[in-house]
UniProtKB/TrEMBL annotation, chains A, B:
Protein name: Transcriptional regulator MntR
Cross-referenced Pfam families: Fe_dep_repr_C (PF02742), Fe_dep_repress (PF01325), FeoA (PF04023)
Keyword list, A-Z: Activator, Cytoplasm, DNA-binding, Iron, Manganese, Repressor, Transcription, Transcription regulation
GO molecular function: DNA binding; DNA-binding transcription factor activity; protein dimerization activity; transition metal ion binding
Quaternary assembly: Homodimer.
Source taxon at top rank: Bacteria
InterPro entries attached to this UniProt entry: DtxR_MntR_Metal-Reg (IPR050536), Fe-transptr_FeoA-like (IPR007167), Fe_dep_repressor (IPR001367), Fe_dep_repressor_sf (IPR036421), FeoA_core_dom (IPR038157), HTH_DTXR (IPR022687), Iron_dep_repressor (IPR022689), Transcriptional_repressor_C (IPR008988)
Organism: Pseudochryseolinea flava
Annotated HTH dtxR-type domain residues: 1-64
Gene3D superfamilies: 2.30.30.90, Iron dependent repressor, metal binding and dimerisation domain, Winged helix-like DNA-binding domain superfamily/Winged helix DNA-binding domain
Record flagged with keyword Transcription: yes
Length: 218, 218
DNA sequence: TTTATTTTTTAGACCGATCTAAAAATTGAC
DNA sequence: GTCAATTTTTAGATCGGTCTAAAAAATAAA
């Protein structure tokens, strides 16, 4: 049984390692957890003795098989709760993350399976991120960053990379949502900003930063 | 801001004091919290400095106005979540308490108001207990213990006093539920057990203990 | 390849929540 | 009203999670 804090560390390690493919360094983890390197070293030893990660002094940590499964279950809960908050309780997509950070730690396998049933086994959360299934399997949909797309090509918004409330609110305001059809009508060489149309109608300018945080498919 | 543990203590104090009407002694609180008297003394001092209770050495604690409001909000959350689990997620009424013990600590006023809206502002939880409203107001329905009722009188089950899973499962098994109509057809002098009919049909015997944990109205 | 910089770990402390053991206050019995 | 039993509080320790400051290792620069 992992503590609240241990679960958060593990989730961070999973994300920072790109799903367990790379090692995670102490300082990177400290920054993402808003804590100090010394605290990370302590926690990392604990997670290591619990078999969640393998830890080699000065070389960072790698998530283990069980650790990965554990992390995916927390992510599953997080994303199912976010979906519930938006679909069922009418939250806006920029309001759900903080609450889901709490709800993801509720311990009840029955609850999460019933929630999943109730929601109709959604495959993605309100931000377009895939929801791992009961077995921890995650179906990644091939998608590319908007700013890399060709001019005049119709693409569909699939996910946001940065899910910060301010970015999400901005997207809502200009009319961009998951499932929207975008077309790049012009690229500004100077600053990387784009002129796009949304659903073939509205024409807006978005910054390079915004364009780099939208994931789309053709 | 109260910690997880402080919230649990406060809720216990509220219940043990019958909604703030009596003082609560250290040992009583220790027993209900499954902890030691020494730990209670520590916690009680902390809750006192936070203004949730007034504490007088050797004479127990009394809940304050703010403490009561705080306790009622936790109870509101607990009971709304229990209602959600049964009504929306199809839990049985004996499966919800433990999960609600966790969910009641989620911090998000927006969440609880949206949940309340979604459920249609229920007035009682799956065990018949009243749900405090947004302002902390609680509508107690006058009800009596089944074992005190007269013979042959039709009464309606309103709530259970003891909500333990085993009792609830037993009730389900014999066909007793919130809203069922019961009639006492015989009282056994010797052991206080009752012979009753459920909804005018099924005839069963229940023990004194069971009869003392069923709340009914006429 | 020696030195300087950066990263990471260790040592030692603090805080919140808990415990055991011992002291103090209250209550009950005679 | 005194003494014994019960209840409650204090004292001191532990554990998990965090911190700062200092030591050690790894990396980069000269
Ligand atoms: Mn999120
Ligand atoms: Mn999300
Ligand atoms: Mn309950
Ligand atoms: Mn209940």
């Amino acid at each position: 049984m992992l503590s609240f804090t241990e679960e958060n560390y593990l989730k961070s390690i999973y994300h920072l390692s790109n799903g367990g493919t790379q090692a995670v360094l102490t300082n990177a983890l400290a920054e993402s957890m808003n804590t100090k390197a010394a605290s990370v070293t302590d926690m990392v030893k604990k997670l290591s003795t619990k078999g969640m990660i393998s830890y080699e002094k000065y070389y960072g940590v790698k998530i283990t098989r069980v650790g990965k499964t554990e992390a995916l279950m927390i992510i599953r809960k997080h994303r199912l709760w976010e979906t519930f908050l938006v679909q069922t309780l009418q939250f806006n997509w920029d309001e759900v993350h903080e609450v889901a950070e709490q709800l993801e730690h509720i311990q009840s396998p029955l609850l999460i399976e019933k929630l999943d049933d109730f929601l109709g086994h959604p495959r993605t959360d309100p931000h377009g991120h895939p929801i791992p299934d009961k077995a921890g399997k995650i179906v990644e949909i091939k998608q590319v960053i908007l700013s890399t797309c060709a001019l005049r090509k119709k693409v569909m918004v699939r996910a946001v990379r940065n899910g910060s409330p301010s970015f999400l609110q901005y997207l809502s305001k200009i009319g961009v949502y998951i499932g929207a059809t975008l077309t790049i009508v012009d690229k500004v060489e100077f600053d990387g900003s784009l002129e796009i149309t949304i659903d073939g109608k509205k024409k807006v300018f978005i910054s390079r930063d915004a364009a780099e945080n939208l994931m789309v498919t053709e």
